[in-house]
Write a structure and sequence with these properties.
single chain; 328 residues; alpha/beta; Leucine-rich repeat, LRR (right-handed beta-alpha superhelix); seven-stranded mixed β-sheet; 10 helices
Length: 328
């Protein structure tokens, strides 16, 4: 919870320099007085701030809780809400700028909520913030906003983008991680850059700054050969669970993996309680007797009664011995 904000005036807007409060979540206000919050400054949440507290440009704003009076005492000695303390940040609607190294060394930051209004992302924004698991993005037209490409350009590790459309249901897209490997080609006197992991190719699935779902789904075949099963299953679960712009052939490719890798898939499905994927598999594919038995064994082992019931019914319906007919 934020109790106090340091900010600087910029045109008719306000740029937040530092937040003070308690807890581990920072929900930034959309307005400070009569000014709209349009940005967060360089190093805003980093251990070292870029604008000195005593600077003549810095203003202070007190954030009162609902129902509180300006006369109520405010905790002036509350700690800076930054660096290792930070777990979640909710950026306000209307925000256009995230400064350089804004989240530098926020090592425990996991969730970042970003508005579609973001226009500029500073360099090194997420350096040292390697625990970010999800980027929550608002969307006016149902498509991932343009700022997603810039955000992914700053995050090389695995991260999930959760899109919240103005109308319609939320959906998620997983972007695997990657790293660069420099290899010296001595005879040619050049340094060759090799990318390990599918994350780099997934980050190239943009056309004119907008995500191409077709190009995204086309990466899956290569992904099954290069990524770990956990990543593959997480990715396909996101696409099948909320199939925005998912073509029929792409859908069948995702389901086929559940069919081709039943032991890995079954273990993950019951551990993550994604029975919806099992239902899709049984309804849209033609599972073999062996496949059903593998899934059934895992369902029994994990004591998932709903799945056991469904699989036994499917086994009886498809593979029950036919009754003999005698003609006299």
């Amino acid at each position: 919870m934020i109790h106090r904000i340091d900010y600087i005036e910029q045109g008719e807007g306000a740029v937040i320099v530092r937040c003070y409060g308690e807890g581990s979540s920072a929900v930034l206000p959309e307005r400070i007085g009569e000014r709209t919050v349009t940005g967060i400054a360089d190093h805003c949440f980093a251990p070292e701030r870029s604008v000195r507290p005593g600077s003549a440009r810095v203003r202070q704003a007190i954030c009162l809780e609902e129902g509180a009076s300006p006369q109520d005492p405010v905790t002036d000695n509350c700690e800076e809400l930054c660096a290792d303390r930070l777990r979640e940040v909710v950026l306000p609607a209307g925000l256009e700028l995230i400064g350089d190294y804004a989240f530098y060394a926020c090592r425990h930051l996991e969730e970042v909520h970003v508005p579609a209004s973001l226009r500029r992302l500073g360099g090194g924004s997420f350096v040292g913030a390697n625990a970010v698991k999800r980027l929550h993005l608002t969307s006016e037209d149902g498509m991932p906003p343009e700022c997603l490409r810039d955000l992914l350009g700053e995050i090389a590790y695995e991260v999930e983008a959760v899109v919240h459309p103005k109308e319609g249901d939320d959906y998620a897209l997983l972007f695997p991680g990657f790293y660069e490997d420099s290899i010296e080609n001595t005879p040619a006197r050049i340094i060759e850059i090799h990318y390990e992991g599918m994350g780099y190719k997934y980050r190239q699935c943009f056309e004119k700054r907008r995500l191409s779902f077709t190009r995204y789904d086309d990466q899956f075949y290569e992904t099954t050969a290069q990524e770990l099963p956990e990543t593959i299953l997480h990715l396909l679960a996101d696409r099948l669970g909320s199939p925005v712009h998912l073509s029929g052939p792409a859908r069948q490719r995702y389901l086929k993996y559940l069919e081709d890798e039943p032991q890995r898939s079954a273990a993950w499905i019951f551990r993550e309680d994604r029975i919806d994927l099992l239902r899709m598999l049984l309804e849209e594919r033609t599972p073999s007797r062996e496949l059903i038995e593998i899934y059934l064994d895992e369902a029994v082992r994990t004591r998932h009664t709903e799945a056991v019931s469904r699989l036994m019914e499917e086994q009886r319906r498809r593979f029950a011995p036919k009754k003999r007919e005698y003609v006299f």
